[in-house]
Amino acid sequence: MKAMIFCAGLGTRFKPWTDHHPKALALVNGKSLLQRNVEFLQSHGIYDVIVNVHHFPDQIEDAVYNNKGWGSNIIISDERNEVLETGGGLLQARAHFANGENFLTLNADILTDLNIPQFLRFHEEEKALISLAVSTRKSSRCFLFNEKKQLTGWRNLQTGQERISIEDPTATPLAFSGMSILNERFFDVLELTGKFSLVDAYLSLAATQPIRGFEHSHERWVDVGRPESVAVAEALFA
To answer: Could you report the per-residue pLDDT of 77-96, keeping only the tens digit for each?
Structure first.
């Protein structure tokens, strides 16, 4: 199984670090977010990793080269000319995924101990095109799922804004954890091009494709999206 770690973002919430560095190289207990996620993937037997770069790309490339990929085979997907967001970035990396294979995507600023084999087993048992890691934690923006765990839409719980793919007033809001498993067939049904987010892609496909929610509320998870989140992450991950 392969994985893609999204590292191309500008990291505006993580200033002032990101004025001079990519967020993926921010340190948590002496290890960068990128290294921690590479090692997390290794702990589940995943050693083939694609990393996209845009913001201070040379720093990420140097870190990968100087550390010999921390023991993994890391391929750089170059977005120097334009940051393509998560969806566009994944689409640009399409050639690295084999026909019909399942692969994992994750955001570089997420740290978790989610059980990837369980996640993959759920994905396969549900015969899903896409499976989204979600939890019951508090979040202002959530995906909506029906009783069959099918994605039905998205809601901002603070403003009430909604994007509905399947009408279901009983759908349950769950917070997205920044990790997905996709089958390579995703690229065949995707109609979006250029710069777009995976959230947009998922919502555009939810009415016609099996997109399931995998709940992992009992596992550790932290979004290291802001400088104040580092202390939280360091308390959770040695």
So the answer is: 999 999 999 999 999 999 99
Confidence band for 148, pLDDT divided at 50, 70 and 90: very high
Residue ranges of domains in the chain? 2-236
Q: How far apart are CA 215 and CA 70, in angstroms?
A: 30
- State pTM to two decimals: 0.97
Cβ atoms within 10 A of the Cβ of 17, count?
A: 15
What pLDDT was estimated at residue 199? 97
Cα–Cα dist 26/19, whole Å: 12
* Arithmetic mean of pLDDT, 58-66: 98
- Cβ-contact 181, 197 below 8 angstroms: no
Distance in angstroms (rounded) separating the CA atoms of residues 223 and 237 = 12
Whether the Cβ atoms of residue 156 and residue 140 lie closer than 8 Å to each other? yes
Enumerate the H helices of the chain as residue ranges.
Answer: 33-42, 57-66, 85-92, 116-125, 186-189, 198-205, 229-236
Report whether CATH 3.90.550.10 matches the domain 2-236: yes
Nearby residues of 118 by Cβ (< 8 Å), 6 or more positions away = 216
Report the percent of the chain where pLDDT is more than 70.
100
Query: Could you identify the residue written with the tokens 């947009």?
Result: 200
